[in-house]
Sequence to fold (314 residues):
Amino acid sequence: MRRSSVVIFVALAAAFLVVASPRAVSAPLALHDAFNARQAFTYTSTVAGYGERWPGSPGHQRTEALIRRVLQRDGATLTADRFTATTPRGPLPVDTLIGTFNASADPAQGIVILAGHYDTLFTKGFIGANDGGSSTGMLLAFADALAHAPKTRLQVRLVWTDLEEAINAFTGDDGLYGSRHLAQKLAADGTARRVRAFFLLDMIGDADLGVARETASTRWLQDFITKAAGDLGYGRFFFQYGVGIIDDHVPFLRAGIPAVDVVDARYGAMGPGLDGMGAWHHSTADTMDKVSARSLEIVGRTMLRTVELLDAKE
Ligand SMILES: [Zn+2]
Fold:
């Protein structure tokens, strides 16, 4: 009796250890839990450290090399949409980078796209820690998460757009060079029909986080983000104010793709005489001290939770 109870105790203790030991927990992480915000912050800081990243600059080349390195390590299929743009500065090379995850053999497989630009303004001393840096870093951390989470039914494409920034101003055909080219390509080859959602990330590292309800964006898709943010207790950081913004999502909307600009449109002080998107927008004050890992965590987890919700109805 005594002996057998010892045996039972040992067996129970062993069972407890199996359950309690983190190494023994074999359930795979949900996609949004696989997102590492510290790593996203580190990537952002690395990219900002490369300095100016306008097309053709050394910083642009180093960013491109980093994106390629991470995608290769994470097992993504890497493609590029490369062309020469006609701009007010003359011809410029544009190189939009695409990392594809979870592609199936089904030619009709649904697709979700998460995008953000990796170029910066042609402005001396502008390093765009938040504008260009934060979305680049978040997408790299998405690649890491996708490499470690269970496969989604939807194909996931991470897109680093190039030459988003206007040379002079967002008027006529200036600005959004890479995204206009890619959206036209997806429309022309029939891929656009398969795209369930296009999410653009822009300036989402702002330590004082507030994601705008961008007014041209697809409303029902914003509702998915609201649900995802609510699930995670982040509701107050989303859609508390509305504003219309010309950004990389516009060409995709024009191609008939449901799209949302996930953008913090109040970066620094707001007011008369200041930039309409905040005092630090397009200013040399757009540096890493204005960016927080917590904001990257809130937006990153929310967007990957949104992908999970879309995937569940696929
Ligand atoms: Zn910008």
In short: The CA atoms of residues 229 and 244 lie 21 Å apart. The chain is about 40% helix and 20% strand. Strands lie at 77-87, 90-101, 111-117, 155-161, 195-202, 211-214, 238-243, 259-263. The pocket of zinc ion is lined by residues 131, 165, 282 (CB under 6 Å).
